[in-house]
Write a structure and sequence with these properties.
Elements: E1 13-20, H1 28-31, E2 38-46, E3 53-56, E4 63-68, E5 74-77, E6 89-92, H2 109-112, E7 117-118, H3 128-139, H4 165-170, H5 213-219, H6 247-258, E8 285-288
Parallel strand pairs: 3-7, 3-8
Antiparallel strand pairs: 1-2, 1-4, 4-5, 6-8
Length: 294
């Protein structure tokens, strides 16, 4: 899964998120997370000059990965959770180069690296009500509140229930809260305003901040490498936005979107039993758990 308007040469680091699963099957919006599970940052590792990377990751910790750009925004993203047992090493290549041959690991800069990044899994997940709603109140609510809210988008309704700002921004794939003249019609039936995945609303792409209209407006630019004229029936940036978030708040917004826009992430986790893969893998990156022999 990748941002179509960028390529692999824009990837400057690999990001790892810890996956904390829910205790029972539930819809993503009932979990208040677009990821379907609670994600929290483990850490980033740099991609070396030749495109290789190496890291030590925590044992028995379910994780997913993403390739991020120089600003920390995801460009390519893993959708399959993985884990490493104690002493296990995983070498992988080719997943995002498609028909091209992967780079062997042995002659790479990562294979020669001695200062190996050791990641930990102790970061608290970002939380919409605590981290993002105050930013929206401070920067956006003056224009986006009440019945006269700009673009019909209200950012003055707290909580995560029906009609809240959270539901309007994050979980409105049927565009229930979007004015009729501003709805996007992507479904086969021209009268159906249901959006295609991974869009969970007109404003949020659940995989990439760079493909989210909310992030575009906060940055006052379209950030997915495309223009409004490239495709029909997709989400357009439209007119310039009169206000831009600070660099710090924009990063916080992007991180929150890509972590799943968690709200109230207090679900009781359970440990999943993962069996290490036995499929043949071509080397390019090496991740290993502590106690890796050699």
């Amino acid at each position: 899964c990748e941002v179509d308007g960028h390529d692999e040469y824009d990837v400057k680091a690999l990001r790892f998120w810890k996956v904390t699963p829910a205790t029972k099957k539930a819809k993503r919006n009932s979990l208040n997370s677009t990821a379907g599970n609670i994600l929290s940052l483990i850490g980033d590792i740099p991609v070396l000059e030749d495109g290789s990377a190496i890291a030590e990751v925590p044992c028995n910790t379910t994780y997913i990965m993403a390739g991020v750009d120089e600003n920390g925004r995801a460009l390519k993203r893993d959708q399959v959770p993985q884990t490493l047992q104690e002493g296990e090493a995983k070498i992988c290549t080719g997943c995002h180069v498609h028909s091209e041959e992967g780079t062997p690991f042995e002659p790479s800069l990562a294979a020669l690296e001695r200062n190996i990044t050791k990641l930990t899994a102790d970061a608290a997940p970002l939380e919409y009500n605590q981290d993002i709603y105050p930013v929206l109140q401070q920067n956006c609510a003056s224009c986006h509140s009440g019945e006269q809210a700009q673009a019909g988008l209200r950012m003055d309704i707290p909580g995560t229930g029906e009609g809240s700002t959270y539901q309007r921004l994050i979980f409105d794939y049927r565009q229930t809260y979007v004015p009729d003249h501003l709805k996007i019609y992507q479904a086969k039936k021209a009268t159906e305003a249901r959006l295609h995945r991974p869009n969970t609303s007109k404003y949020t792409n659940s995989m990439f901040a760079l493909e989210s209209l909310l992030y575009w407006k906060a940055a006052n630019e379209r950030t997915d490498g495309r223009t409004d004229n490239d495709y029909q029936h997709d989400i357009d940036f439209g007119a310039n936005h009169p206000y831009t978030l600070s660099k710090q708040d924009l990063k916080l917004l992007g991180d929150t979107i890509e972590e799943g826009a968690n709200a109230n992430p207090t679900l009781d986790p359970y440990a999943l039993d993962h069996t290490p893969t036995t499929k043949k893998q071509r080397p390019a990156l090496l991740f290993f758990s502590p106690e890796f022999p050699g």
